[in-house]
Design a protein that fits this description.
Length: 775
């Protein structure tokens, strides 16, 4: 654990430079606006530890797969959101020597990500090897309003010298991905232009043999310079190199002078514009934003963030670190995905690093959708569902490659364009529970929003295709006289190729049941016949098969302990608890894979993932027994794990456990808990942190169209409040030790149940807390 970030309710602050942790800080201080994003790199050259990262949403490259032993069915490539043109770069030379903080003596240093405003800033006083004292101040943002642009204000002040300062703002496409499988570069140049204080660079992703779309991205910049606050009359000398353009400005300065450079940049991609129009559109875009000017761009951006916080904020009274942690999570989720574009999704690292390739996992459906549903309006979650709807044909194709037929769909484990990108057989072919998460998200969305129309419009086609997959994936066991599911990997990836993973079997049966009920509903709608014809649905035969599986599925169970078994044979393992192996943790770094697989230790919620999703199907005793059996064997080595345990613990009244698990998720990255923040942030699990508060501590659910709350306060907090949108109304909910206060500022009432008592909330409603909830 590292604790060098200063606690602050609204900011992530590094006081004094920590060069050894620089890649961690760069991850923490990443900026984004849904369309583009970047790590918290310095603008000027830095030769110390750094991972340069600029990303354009949806722009990826199919990097040739690298595996030891090829298995039929593996995809040929791994899609990666690639490191794109560096648009923040500004080289600074003082009397011909490049300024590089790595070689300077640093007198003072301060870097801050202001989450309230979405602004990254830094100031620093440094002494160059030549003895010049300089002060650098920088500020930048990725505009939430003009979301294909960003702007930088960068100042250099001569503190003890007279001389020449050269400022060279540039666009650099000679970047690489650190995670390239064969150390190749992914971009080639299409064109470049420079004119006074302007540069335009168009790059294209290199050709590939897989028929995957090549993207063109045009990055444009314009700049302006002030000296001591007044506009400078300057010459900009164009520089053009391979995949690089710059404008070089040489200025004379005297001690005490300050130069301030304003750099505006845009990133336009062929995913959104015609290729032949990219350059012109980039210039128009630059015209528009430079006309607004830095201050107006910034204030519009700040207003957009203020509006987001109005709908998203969680306030925690009495625990500054928890406050910083939760806002950090909300901030990054909101800047990673804004929900305006149904072709985009949420990569596990967002715009903060390369790991996991920026591609889509089941994390979106299982973790992120509940967050966006409650904080961002219905269309945002709906667009995430439509993303999968649009990939349905590919999911059917993907299942076909594995031998399934007749419209059965297996959604990929990881994807950019709907095609599978993952290549570890035990996950790619076997971690099929992801299909269930996609079906569950449809249910979750409809349950939350009441938008049943979605079923007929899009949902049912997906559900039928997924149900067809389960039908073909199970087989009849003559010995058990039950349907079984062999050779699967559950969410707990520390078990592979197991038979009858309880979670997967349960989810499959639930999908079949839900699809049957969806068919019933859609049958009453006009569109039903058209959908059935489109998917060639043999209603009688197919629904009969599904019902048979529902009736006769096998679920491993231990009658002695009265718990569900994670898989067949689980009790043959030597059952130990995590506290017996504390010096061996994390086991994924200290043990061989073979040892992990044979052990009972669990990477992340598995049976408990099922109990979390379907808690209303089970009584408290069942939930408790399973929790008490599995949680002590769980090492939580996936960031997706603690939040599920925290929520379950909250609903079981295990307050201490709930808080312990919450703390592990909330500051996972801020404190570099897993020693991997330098690779990027755990964006998707951040949604789990939010859920630990709202679904966990506040016990929020939606039952029969009513918002349900069963709130309590974790011990170290005095009070907390959160905003939640439900059926078009944003409410503020405050929980103190005495009462729950719900504010609905609109003119329409909303039904809310608090600890079993139902209110029609209009204006303010106060529910006094009693008993355990008030403790
Ligand atoms: C987890 C998966 C998850 C992936 C991306 C893995 O470590 O086991 O469940 O989908 O990370 O977050």
């Amino acid at each position: 654990m590292k604790q060098y970030i200063t606690p602050n309710p609204w900011s992530v602050i590094e006081e004094g430079f920590h060069p050894e942790e620089n890649e961690i800080t760069e991850s923490l201080m990443s900026l984004g606006n849904g369309r583009m994003g970047q790590r918290g790199n310095f603008e000027e050259k830095y030769s110390g530890k750094t991972l340069l990262g600029n990303y354009v949403a949806g722009v990826y490259f199919p990097d040739k797969t690298r595996v030891g032993w090829w298995k039929n069915g593996y995809p040929d490539y791994f899609a990666k959101v690639i490191n794109a043109c560096n648009w923040i770069g500004i080289d600074v030379e003082i009397d011909g020597q490049i300024l590089d903080l790595h070689t300077c003596q640093i007198e003072e240093f301060y870097r801050e990500l202001d989450m309230k405003r979405g602004v990254l800033s830094r100031h620093c006083t440094a002494i160059t090897p030549q003895g010049q004292r300089v002060r650098i101040e920088s500020e930048r943002f990725c505009s939430m309003v003009d979301d294909e642009s960003g702007a930088i204000k960068y100042s250099v002040k001569a503190l003890n010298f007279d001389g020449h300062i050269t400022l060279t703002p540039y666009l650099d496409g000679t970047i690489r991905n650190r995670d390239a499988n064969y150390d190749e570069t992914f971009w080639q140049e299409i064109s470049k232009e420079t004119s006074f204080a302007e540069g335009i660079l168009t790059l294209e992703t290199k050709p590939n043999p897989y028929g995957v779309e090549q993207f063109e991205v045009t990055t444009g910049m314009r700049f302006d310079i002030k000296k001591n606050g007044k506009k400078l009359d300057f010459q900009s000398h164009p520089v053009k190199n391979e995949k690089y353009v710059a404008g070089k400005v040489v200025t004379e300065i005297s001690e005490g002078d300050e130069l301030t450079l304003f750099k505006y940049a845009v990133n336009l991609s062929s995913a959104n514009y015609k290729r032949e129009e990219l350059t012109e559109k980039a210039k128009n875009y630059l015209d528009r934003i430079t006309k607004k000017g830095y201050s107006s761009l910034l204030s519009e951006h700040e207003l957009a963030w203020a509006d987001k916080w109005e709908r998203n904020d969680i306030e925690i009274v009495g625990d500054m670190e928890a406050q910083q942690g939760i806002r950090f999570n909300i901030f990054h989720l909101q800047q990673t995905y804004t929900g305006e574009d149904e072709s985009l999704n949420i990569g596990p690292k967002g715009f903060t690093g390369e790991k996991y390739g920026g591609v889509t996992y089941w994390d979106t459906e299982a973790y992120c959708i509940p967050f966006y549903l409650a904080t961002s309006g219905k269309h945002v979650a709906r667009n995430l569902l439509i993303y999968r709807y649009k990939h349905l044909a590919k999911a059917i194709e993907n299942a076909g490659k594995l031998g399934f037929s007749q419209g059965a769909a297996l959604y990929p484990m990881v994807t950019m364009n709907g095609e599978e990108s993952h290549n570890e057989w035990e996950i790619t072919f076997e971690e099929i529970h992801r299909n269930g998460a996609i079906a569950f998200a449809i249910y979750d969305y409809i349950n939350y929003t009441g938008d049943k129309v979605y079923l007929a419009e899009y949902g049912l086609e997906v559900l039928i295709a997924i149900s067809r997959f389960w039908k073909q994936r199970v087989n009849w066991s003559a010995q058990k006289e039950k349907f079984v599911m062999l050779g699967v990997t559950g969410p707990n990836e520390y078990e592979n190729n197991v038979n009858n993973n309880w979670y997967t079997n349960y989810l499959a049966v639930w999908c079949l049941k839900y699809t049957l009920s969806a068919i019933e509903y859609v049958r009453s709608q006009e569109k039903a016949d058209a959908i059935f014809a489109k998917v060639e649905f043999d209603q009688e035969a197919e629904t009969k098969d599904w019902q048979e599986i529902i009736d006769k599925m096998y679920f491993p169970y231990d009658p002695e302990r009265e718990v569900f078994l994670q898989q067949d044979g689980f009790l043959d393992k030597e059952l130990k608890t995590v506290d017996q192996i504390s010096e061996h943790r994390p086991i994924n770094q200290k043990w061989s894979w073979d040892r992990i697989l044979r052990s009972c230790f669990i990477k992340q919620a598995d049976v408990l993932q099922g109990l979390y999703l379907f808690e209303d199907h089970f009584d408290q005793g069942t939930l408790r027994r399973n929790f008490d059996f599995y949680e002590p064997m769980t090492v939580h080595e996936s960031s997706l794990s603690p939040c599920v345990h925290s929520i379950l613990a909250s609903s079981l009244g295990k307050k201490e456990k709930a808080y312990e698990m919450y703390v592990r998720t909330a500051r996972l990255d801020l404190d570099d808990y897993n020693n991997d923040t330098e690779d990027g942030l755990h964006i998707t699990s951040m949604a789990g942190t939010w859920m630990s508060v709202v679904k966990g501590f506040a016990g929020q659910r939606v039952r029969d169209g009513v918002l349900v709350l069963n709130p309590y306060i974790p011990e170290g907090w005095d009070a907390y409040s959160f905003r939640i949108g439900f059926r078009g109304i944003t409410m503020r909910i405050e929980v103190t030790r005495q009462a729950v206060i719900i504010e609905n500022p609109t003119t329409e009432s909303v039904e809310v149940q608090v600890w079993g008592k139902q209110y029609s909330v209009l204006g303010e409603v106060r529910h006094e807390l009693k008993g355990a909830a008030a403790e």
